[in-house]
Design brief:
The structure holds two protein chains of two kinds.
Chain A lengths: L5 H16 L2 H22 L8 H32 L4 H38 L17 H18 L7 H9 L12 H9 L6 H34 L6 H32 L17 H7 L2 H12 L9 H19 L3 H19 L1 H10 L6 H24 L3 H9 L5 H9 L3 H6 L8 E2 L2 E2 H28 L3 H6 L3 H18 L13
Antiparallel strand pairs in A: 1-2
Helix pairs in contact in A: 1-2, 2-6, 3-4, 3-5, 4-5, 6-7, 8-9, 8-19, 8-21, 9-15, 11-12, 12-13, 13-15, 15-16
Chain B lengths: L1 H23 L10 H11 L4 E5 L9 H8 L2 E4 L8 H8 L8 E6 L1 H5 L1 H9 L1 H10 L1 H10 L3 H24 L14 H4 L32 H11 L4 E6 L2 E2 H6 L1 H14 L3 E2 L7 E2 L13 H18 L1
Parallel strand pairs in B: 1-2, 1-3, 3-4, 4-6, 5-7
Helix pairs in contact in B: 3-14, 7-8, 7-9
The chains are: A mainly alpha, B alpha/beta.
């Protein structure tokens, strides 16, 4: 059951109505039942009789359910054990903690990375002329495994390290792991922020629910109007990069930059909005990352809950920045590589993350030189222009690295990067000479009936709609950035007719300009 | 709670009203198949007796003004795409037939004897949408009578979406003069006044063949032509069927299936069968980019041949 499906709306409405009709003491149970249903339905919807036999599928589903249930049971009892024995028996407690961390990581490795590692070993063996039988495992990857693994680790580590109280209520603890609003793709919530909210009695609050619905609407706008529309261009270009060059590769890769942001930010907004309907506040996951003035800042605004998780449970335990300079830089780089591996078992993700880590290190190494250069050319005297330059530069670096993130193979990524500028000289010449007939020739890709994934008549309306939607989103981001205030709060101060006009516009855009092909959210696979 | 339900209801009502408004106001649909609307208009506007061509894109480059002139008929080329479905296409033109008209039907081979493609044609939702657009009232009544409310909503919504996107395009490009056009926005540049393609297909090698799998023909997939012939005969309308052109090499490769198809049609069809498949078998250099589309040279010969054949029977 995807957030962008009719089924989810029916599910959400039913769950919300019954939730508020129930007494507080039963609400946790109702949310847990709903979360189990959501999880189960999602598993059921992945069944494709053409791809997998029923008996094999049933075994897979048993494996998927067993893995999440076992993680919940182990974490629950280990958490209580660690809390009780932390001071009295630190040695044993540490062993329990390590087992508690290794177990979900082992499952993650088995389900998500086994085939990748196996294949890599096979390739190395082949290179060394050795015999290595590569047997790929045909698993269904458990829904949200990357996310609940992180939830489970932070729970145990927080009990061990920070004195987080172990949860005694098994149902509430299960809900912490399984809560349907965040099980699939986060946000990755810490136990001390989420668990207490399940205990709190949430009254029906019109303002809060409306706020959640508005946030969901904004999420749907990003997903349906921008991300899924850009996906058509992105899929076409990245699945057949050799058919394209220069301007087309630039358009395709730029579309991906907005697709990946709008898809995941849209999902996060919907998840936060859904939770808000039940009175539960989830952590903000994105804070206008494309307006960052440095790559480091961009990573503080992008997938915030993952990055802060990596900071707290990987980077800081490695010593963070309170170590020798080389070691600090090593810590930064390793943390980024881990974030790449988390995204998927593919060298393209690792390269993407490594590049971003490298950009941050590069900015540290060149800080003095850049400062001198900026002063020398007088940019410091025009701070606004300086900010625009920094934002643009950061965006370009992220855009280039994101080519690796989306490319199907490393070969494709290198092909795209090496052909980004092909034919641009001709295009500029054509533009400068105002030769419109020549310009029209850029709208024809040889041997293609379609243009960048769209039929020829549909391309222009679709691309204009996409560009307009991105423009609207960025204008909203800039206003929020400048005023440092939520758009919803700004709109709430306007007269009622302006409020209605704006929300009518948003709703109309979703209904009449949304792409309803039921495309999966990109981050569901991570 | 009441306030929340009230606002949600108001939002739903406002969206339904917007949908109705978008449906009513004139506008274009940026989709190739929207040309069906323009073609229907053309059919209605031409005075009988007319010679009406029904087929796929293989018939789009036909020189219908030449054929019409030779036969002294007003020529109307309703052909657009093989995947539309001849059965559905014939159903659409039924209400507009007039005594003295001649309907010339052809089907590309995949649409006739590739089982999977035939199945695809009759389940293709994209075609349904644009047939709906040709006669909205009639189709709406059918959907309502069959209680297919969701299907009906989906089609109306998708068409409204297309129109909304077309408006955005025209507004952004300051294309105000075309805000009130209907049908396919590029119709006037891509088609002539008879409904033929205005420009020839580009020549590309090797020829594309869409991986057609030939099967032996099944009469149930063609029986509709006889039903249509009966309907037409009652209205003094002639029906002619002809076998489409094909490259020699492909014809040889699938000859037994094509021959079986010919035998079946010859035996069972109530209408006039104009030719044998081998009559329109041409060398590869008469074709443009696929085995279905002729280039200018091929089209000249096909149009002349067809015209001569039709002359003999009309």
């Amino acid at each position: 059951m995807q957030f962008n499906s009719i089924g989810f709306f029916v599910f959400l409405t039913t769950v919300a109505v019954i939730y508020y009709a129930l007494k507080h003491k039963w609400r946790w149970l109702w949310l847990l039942i709903a979360s189990f249903f959501f999880f189960g339905y999602f598993c059921y919807s992945t069944y494709n009789p053409e791809k997998i036999q029923l008996d094999r599928y049933i075994y897979n589903i048993i494996g998927v359910i067993a893995s999440i249930v076992s993680v919940i049971i182990i974490d629950y009892f280990f958490g209580i054990y660690i809390e009780k024995n932390r001071k009295a028996n630190p040695g044993k407690t540490k062993i329990v903690l390590v087992i508690g961390i290794i177990y979900p990581l082992f499952l993650l490795l088995l389900f998500k990375y086994f085939n990748f590692l196996n294949q890599t070993v096979g390739q190395i063996a082949q290179f060394l002329n050795l015999q290595y039988p590569v047997h790929m495992l045909n698993f269904i990857i458990p829904l949200g495994i990357s996310y609940y693994t992180f939830h489970s680790i932070s729970y145990l580590v927080d009990i061990y390290r920070n004195g987080q109280k172990a949860e005694r209520h098994f149902g509430i603890f299960s809900l912490y792991i399984l809560f349907f609003a965040k099980i699939v793709s986060g946000p990755i919530e810490r136990p001390n922020t989420l668990i207490p909210q399940f205990y709190k009695e949430h009254q029906f609050n019109y303002g809060q629910i409306m706020d959640g619905i508005k946030l969901m609407a904004w999420g749907f706008f990003q997903k349906l109007v921008i991300a899924d529309r850009a996906a058509m261009v992105v899929n076409e270009v990245f699945n057949r990069p050799q058919d394209y060059w220069g301007i087309y590769l630039i358009i395709g890769s730029l579309c991906f930059v907005f697709q990946v942001y709008c898809d995941f930010s849209g999902y996060s907004d919907i998840a936060i909005g859904v939770a808000q309907i039940f009175g539960i506040k989830l952590t903000i996951n994105f804070k206008r990352p494309y307006l960052s003035t440095s790559v480091a800042e961009l990573w503080r605004r992008w997938h915030i809950t993952l990055i802060s998780w990596l900071r707290d449970y990987v980077y800081i335990p490695m010593g963070g920045n309170r170590v020798a300079r080389w070691r600090w830089q090593y810590n930064v780089f390793v943390t980024f590589i881990l974030s790449g591996i988390w995204h998927g078992a593919n060298w393209t993700y690792i390269t993407w993350a490594g590049l971003n880590g490298f950009f941050i290190l590069l900015s540290i190494w060149t800080a003095t030189v850049r400062e001198k250069f900026v002063t020398a050319i007088g940019l410091t005297r025009t701070p606004r222009l300086h900010t625009i330059v920094k934002i643009s530069w950061t965006f370009i670096l992220f855009w280039l690295s994101s080519i690796f993130f989306r490319a199907n193979t490393m070969t494709d990524a290198f092909y795209i990067i090496s052909h980004l500028l092909t034919g641009l000289d001709d295009l500029f010449k054509t533009l400068l000479t105002m030769n419109y007939d020549m310009l029209k020739s850029f709208l024809v890709v040889p041997n293609k009936n379609t243009f960048l994934g769209y039929s020829k008549p549909a391309f222009l309306p679709e691309i204009i709609t996409l560009a307009m939607a991105i423009l609207v989103m960025e204008v909203i981001h800039i206003i929020q950035e400048v005023k440092n205030e939520r758009m919803r709060d700004m709109i709430a101060r306007k007269p009622w007719y302006i409020q209605w006009a704006l929300y009518y516009g948003l709703l109309s855009a979703i209904v009449f300009l949304g792409v309803y092909s039921n495309q999966q959210f990109l981050y569901f696979v991570y | 709670m009441k306030k929340l339900v009230g606002y949600i209801t108001l939002s739903i009502i406002s969206m339904i009203l917007t949908l109705c408004a978008l449906w009513i106001v004139p506008g274009t649909y940026p989709h190739d198949l929207a040309a069906m609307v323009n073609k229907k208009k053309m059919l209605v506007s031409k005075k009988p007796p007319r010679i009406i061509f029904i087929g796929g894109s293989s018939q789009l480059t036909l020189d219908t003004p030449l054929v019409g002139k030779e036969l002294h008929y007003a020529a109307v080329n309703m052909s657009l795409w093989g995947g539309l479905g001849t059965r559905e296409h014939l159903e659409e033109i039924k209400p507009y037939l007039k005594p003295g008209d001649v309907v010339v039907i052809t089907m590309e081979y995949p649409a006739a004897i590739d089982k999977k493609y035939v199945e695809y044609i009759h389940t293709n939702k994209e075609s349904k949408k644009f047939f709906f657009l040709m006669s909205p009232r009639r189709h709406m009544a059918e959907y309502l009578a069959n209680r297919q409310y969701c299907e009906l909503f989906k089609i109306v919504h998708e068409l409204a979406q297309l129109k909304a996107k077309s408006y955005i395009r025209n507004l952004v490009l300051l294309n105000f003069f075309h805000l009130c056009d209907t049908g396919f926005p590029n119709y006037s540049t891509e088609f002539n006044t008879n409904g033929d393609r205005a420009t020839p297909y580009v020549v590309v090698r090797p020829l594309g063949d869409s991986n057609t799998i030939f099967n032996y023909p099944e009469w149930k997939n063609h029986a509709f032509i006889n039903d249509f012939t009966d309907y037409a005969a009652a209205r003094n309308v002639k029906v002619v069927f002809y076998f489409s052109h094909f490259p020699r090499a492909y014809y040889k490769l699938n000859e037994r299936y094509i021959d079986a198809y010919y035998d079946l049609m010859k035996k069972k069809l109530k209408c006039i069968v104009l030719n044998k498949p081998s009559d329109f078998v041409y060398p590869e250099d008469y074709f443009a980019e696929t085995v279905y589309h002729l280039n200018q040279k091929g089209e000249k010969i096909r149009s002349a041949q067809l015209s001569t054949m039709l002359k003999k029977i009309l």
